[in-house]
Write a structure and sequence with these properties.
Elements (H helix, E strand, L loop, with lengths): L4 E6 L3 H12 L4 E7 L2 H8 L6 E4 L8 H11 L4 E6 L2 H12 L4 E5 L4 H7 L1 H12 L3 H8 L14 E3 L5 E3 H4 L6 E6 L3 H9 L8 E6 L5 H12 L3 E4 L5 E2 L3 E4 L5 E7 L2 E7 L11 H12 L3 E5 L8 H9 L3 E5 L9 H7 L5 E3 L1 H13 L3
Parallel strand pairs: 1-2, 1-3, 3-4, 4-5, 8-9, 8-15, 9-12, 10-12, 15-16, 16-17
Antiparallel strand pairs: 6-7, 11-14, 13-14
Family: Belongs to the CheB family.
GO molecular function, one term: protein-glutamate methylesterase activity
GO biological process, one term: chemotaxis
């Protein structure tokens, strides 16, 4: 794509369209070519000029955003940024949109919209630029892939863990010395779904940073938990990192891993953004390098920017095994590229190989 990024805004609020158009228009690399109050009007305008990126609301009259998104993906896959309210309902609906192929989420509150968007204008611009740089052929392939979720644990297959969650008996027999740390951003929701749904309950404990706004990580973790064999939770302070469990850093807060004896647990903390992100992959990776050293598998996947690259180098220098998703299968080859440039990566591999490498790592001794 050359020249300015051509953007269409689809939102039933005239104020949202006006504010977004003004904010995006400030950036010399972005041009808002059209706006529409609902998908029906949007389709008429798209037949005249197709945008590079669509900023889309999810709750609108005549046709909802999810239906419209699926229609776009079936006809002409186009990068879509979801503009959604910061509510539990909005988060759950937005997760459906991400599963259907949306690239990123921008939040909007119910009140104080203009001030909120002006404060967060950098996030909106970055989301649009990340979407414009995305590999939509890969997004389409992931969202249209056949999927067969495995049944969740039943009560006779499980026992309560020390912090009240359920963990399989077979998983409890595996050492807790190893862990897996994953960092990802743009395109990561679909990539994580593809990886985590392939994992067995005996894999080492997993800690994840996926760049995502507050409230949305809970809905994301709930969705993954419903379709994975492993347990997937939004992390809470003090949660243990145990085999068969993945902890997702909550939006708006950093997550670190700490060690007590042979056990790992997470600390969820309020602190300023790092690399413009909260949670930050670097914060997680650096903590893992410090507390786990060579007993960790570090994985950096699709995402814009360089968050996680320095932290991965610290893990690599501490003796950890490190993996980067390859350029061909990334939606945006930014974060992995920066880690590779720093010499922090032992292996570069397609997305489809990552689950197998996690399983193999879990089976290794010593």
């Amino acid at each position: 794509m050359s020249g300015k990024i051509k953007v269409m805004l689809v939102d039933d609020s005239a104020v949202v369209r006006q504010v977004l158009a003004a904010l995006l228009g400030k950036d010399g690399g972005i041009e808002v070519i059209a706006s529409a109050p609902d998908p029906i009007f949007a389709m008429d305008k798209m037949n005249v000029q197709w945008p590079d990126v669509i900023v889309l609301d999810v709750e609108m009259p005549r046709m909802d955003g999810i239906t419209f998104l699926k229609k776009i993906m079936s006809i002409r896959p186009t990068p879509v940024v979801i503009c959604s309210t910061l509510t539990e309902k909005g988060a759950a609906t937005s997760m459906q949109a991400m599963a259907a192929g949306a690239i990123a989420i921008v939040t909007k509150p119910k009140a104080g919209l203009r001030n909120f968007l002006e404060l967060d204008e950098g996030d909106i611009v970055q989301a649009v630029k990340a979407a414009a740089a995305s590999n939509m052929r890969h997004v389409k392939a992931m969202t249209m892939a056949p999927f067969n979720p495995t049944q969740k644990l039943t009560i006779d297959q499980a026992m309560p863990s020390s912090d009240g969650a359920q963990t399989s008996l077979s998983a409890m027999s595996v050492t807790t010395d190893k862990l897996v740390a994953i960092g990802t951003s743009t395109g990561g929701t679909q990539a994580l779904e593809l990886v985590l749904t392939q994992l067995s309950r005996t894999v080492p404990g997993i800690v994840i940073v996926q760049h995502m706004p507050e409230k949305f990580t809970a809905a994301f973790a709930d969705r993954l938990n419903s379709i994975c064999q492993i347990e997937v939770l939004e992390a809470k302070n003090g949660d243990r990192v145990i085999p068969g469990r993945a902890l997702v850093a909550p939006g708006g807060r950093h997550m670190q891993v700490k060690r007590s004896g042979a056990q790992y647990h997470v600390e969820v903390i309020d602190a300023p953004p790092v690399n413009r992100h909260r949670p930050s992959v670097d914060v997680l990776f650096r903590s893992v390098a410090k507390c786990a050293g060579r007993n960790v598998l570090g994985i950096i996947m699709t995402g814009m920017g360089d968050d996680g690259a320095l932290g991965m180098r610290e893990m690599h220098d501490a003796g950890a095994e490190t993996i980067a998703q390859d350029e061909k299968t990334c939606v945006v080859y930014g974060m992995p590229k920066e880690a590779v440039k720093l010499g922090a990566v032992d292996k570069i591999t397609p997305l489809t190989n990552i689950a197998g490498l996690i399983e193999a790592y879990g089976r290794k001794h010593g």
